[in-house]
Amino acid sequence: xxxxxxxxEPRHHRRVTLADxxxxxxxxxATASRxxxxxxxxxxxxxxxxxxxxxxxxYVPNAAARSLRARATRTLGLLLxxxxxxxxxxxxxxxxxxxxxxxxxxxxxxxxxxxxxxxRALKVFVEHQTDGIALVxxxxxxxxVMSFARPDRVVFVQAxxxxxxxxxxxxxxxxxxxxxxxxxxxxxRYLVASGYRQFAYLGTGATATNLTRRAAVERAMRAAxxxxxxxxxxxGARGWRSGDAIAQRIARxxxxxxxxxxxKLALAVMDGxxxxxxDVPGDVAIIGFDGIPFAALSNPRxxxxxxxxLEMGRRAAQMLVASIESGSLPSSIxxxxxxxxxxxxxxxxxxx
Amino acid sequence: xxxxxxxxEPRHHRRVTLADxxxxxxxxxATASRxxxxxxxxxxxxxxxxxxxxxxxxYVPNAAARSLRARATRTLGLLLxxxxxxxxxxxxxxxxxxxxxxxxxxxxxxxxxxxxxxxRALKVFVEHQTDGIALVxxxxxxxxVMSFARPDRVVFVQAxxxxxxxxxxxxxxxxxxxxxxxxxxxxxRYLVASGYRQFAYLGTGATATNLTRRAAVERAMRAAxxxxxxxxxxxGARGWRSGDAIAQRIARxxxxxxxxxxxKLALAVMDGxxxxxxDVPGDVAIIGFDGIPFAALSNPRxxxxxxxxLEMGRRAAQMLVASIESGSLPSSIxxxxxxxxxxxxxxxxxxx
DNA sequence: TTGTAGGCGTTATCAA
DNA sequence: TTGATAACGCCTACAA
Lengths: 352, 352
What we know:
The structure is a homodimer of 352-residue chains. Chain A is an alpha/beta fold and 352 residues long. Chain A has three domains: 18-70, Orthogonal Bundle (434 Repressor (Amino-terminal Domain)), CATH 1.10.260.40; 75-179 and 309-336, Rossmann fold, CATH 3.40.50; 180-308, Rossmann fold. In chain A, 42% of the residues lie in helices and 16% in strands. The first copy, chain A, has twelve helices and twelve strands. Chain A has helices at residues 18-25, 29-36, 44-57, 63-70, 86-101, 115-127, 142-148, 180-193, 208-223, 243-253, 263-276, 309-326; strands spanning 75-80, 105-110, 132-136, 154-157, 174-178, 199-203, 231-234, 257-260, 285-290, 303-306, 333-335, 338-340. In chain A, the strands form two sheets. Chain A has a six-stranded parallel β-sheet with strand order 2-1-3-4-5-11, sandwiched between helices. In chain A, strands 7-6-8-9-10-12 form a six-stranded mixed β-sheet, with helices on both faces. In chain A, helix 8 packs parallel to helix 9 (208-223) and helix 10 (243-253) packs across helix 11. The radius of gyration of chain A is 27 Å and the shape is elongated. Chain A binds a DNA duplex (16 and 16 nucleotides) through helix 2 and helix 4.
């Protein structure tokens, strides 16, 4: 009896390599490599034969081998706080679109706003030799980030290290921000002109973005001649998920207008206020930040200072690719925000 | 005059390699490799010396080289339609969390629900030799997907190829779905018991998920003894962004209850209906799908059939890792959904 | 306990 | 126009 083959077929066929293609096309692997790269030195006949062999065998180049040799990975790292957050999702979408369109693949890691996570993420990027890294709302000190990677291959989007708060200079390298301060000035001017005097700000933690926004509100108030101080509220550890608790505090205080750190928070507070029987905008007007899609669908529709999140993601990828391919990182940019006055903050009926 | 060094420093120091570490520690690179891997055969002294050298030089292993040698990348591919979509973002978040916790890095690509994009994405995954691939709401035929990658290294989450619609079998490999049909049955039972008879369904395109949901509604209606047919509405190309146009059609038709393909759509329609002066739930009750966070914050709060999106993402990563490490892909699963009755679909005041 | 050598799959240099 | 060869950085079988 002839020996029978094992019952379980060797399912995992060895991956077809360039050498296999070369053999099938009866050329050397060097020729095969060049043929597939459409190198002009290879005759058209040979190129065709090699390509046919490659297609026939289902050849797919091995990125690891190629990267090893090329010292470049055509891969970009994206570090952001949370993927399931409307703003970050938008930035990520823009980044991925742009990167993909330019032939780069994206490695995404979430940092949960924790330094340890962020550091680990950077290390992973370095291991994987990403050609560039974008950091979104990340809290690590820029200087530390730079110690991990080539400074001209790093872009910060809304860098959130506390030291960056206020009006100080941005990190020494590529940075992308929204012109939120201008947006706030415009919003406060609008509010004051509309009859609002008693302002409150609902913030979250010690990130640069939060601190900057709050400070800008205060500055803008003074600039607009408002004397009464800004009432400050802060959310607890559960963030916007604790809308009710926050709403109770707001309900007690009853500012004329509440500016919220972001739309998520604003929407949660609106819901909480509703439960308290507080009318928006009748009793308290509300303004958010970011311009997430659902802010346009709430009831009442939420006024907001909208940042171009998708565009910021796109730009981050563009800057990185520019740096990689042209050798120099484009200079930092501030993208304009847009004040969207909707139903949560109408002009006040001062008289009547 | 001594020759001065060039003005522009060679900024790009060659990356430090294992050989560098070995040299610094005065051992062979083999020993260095083993020392860093905490190989018991290397003396503690040497291990310490090597580690010190590695730390001193800032050594970071090169993933490409390692992958090439190991024939594994510790990388997972995630293909989804859009990153800026509450459901996909949630799935992505769960996937990334779980993958990261298990030491895997995630390559994310968006497929825009277009076969060409999806194919390209798969090719990229193959090039990068991802150890596993998860496909979320993807429309490519499962068979075609399998031709790209090892079937036991692929997981489908809510596979959306039209052939998968209805109650047919799932793809032959790992699949993760929400038990939406059961959820729909429960919802319809609730609605009928609450006095609703005139149903409408607002859907979107020919994906398996949409077709399955619509069919399930019809089946459940019949099972509940409803005779009147289901009125069908479909959104146009702009999807949920055209809430107003859809709302006009709904306003004209005035079904007693409108079940929407997903929460996004439901929220958009609610906004459009409001503009039309149609009261929800007074004139039309509304139920959505997915259970996205903002569904809980709308006014009125949206009733919905909630899928465990985050968990589905987690499970996808778990299944892949299990397959990679234990050699066999766990069997397909259906995760239970949860019917959340909120304010957009209260029991009807039938009498009075 | 440590070292030597070879190969993972590509591409680039040099030679033919 | 094509081919042989080396090297990218790592790991491990084998030798010492």
